[in-house]
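Appendix B. Raw example, untouched.
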Amino acid sequence: MTAKPTKEELGLYSLLPEEFVGARNELAKELSKSGKKPQADRVQKLVKPTVPAWAVNRAAAADPDAAGELLRSGQRLAKAQRGAGATGAGDALREAMSAQQDAIESLMSAVATALEDRGHASPANLDRARDTLRALATDEDLRREFEQGRIARDREPVGFGSAPEPQRRGRGAADAASEAAEHDPRAAARARQAAERTHAAAAKRAERARAKLRKAEEAVERARSRLRDAEGARDEAERELEAAESAERDAERSLA
């Protein structure tokens, strides 16, 4: 039976990817010195998270409500799949899949923020993070890692968790809402809500970027002001040196 991760081990996964290996090695060294060789060996084998996996861990910690809703939607989807043969099960399954898609897109806002903050918001990283979230519905080990915030590698969705979601592969939220409306008004409403959440997250990121730009511009202006002051002080010092050297020359002439 695999040992339950300790608080120190779980703490490694809250670090930035580039900090993981150094912190892991240091923790293993401390455990070894303390006589905890088995735990030290286990820590030394911990794998550095991929960037998408790290972003999923960070998003779950940043938005626990969205993370909890995603887990619950996965459970509902699994239940709907188990009852797929019953009368009316098709509608229940479609609704469960739609709810899971909404939950995924809600948490993807936090994933995108984490990736953008570290300069890793590429389409490939976003897709891999989204696939990992979709895989939660059918992967019990992944769900456990997700709950503990220690996902280390990307996953591919399998089975009923692999249905395409509304905003994937270049389709916009408006297209998703239009398509959903043709089949289910409630699905259209959920698609619109997902689009609104995505827009709100984008607006927040834009505002943060504007705030960073303002701070940078203020810092540049302060630096320019300091430079002007320094140049003024330099000019004054040069004038004082010139006057002093002139006085020195006059004094030398008077002694001759």
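End of appendix B.
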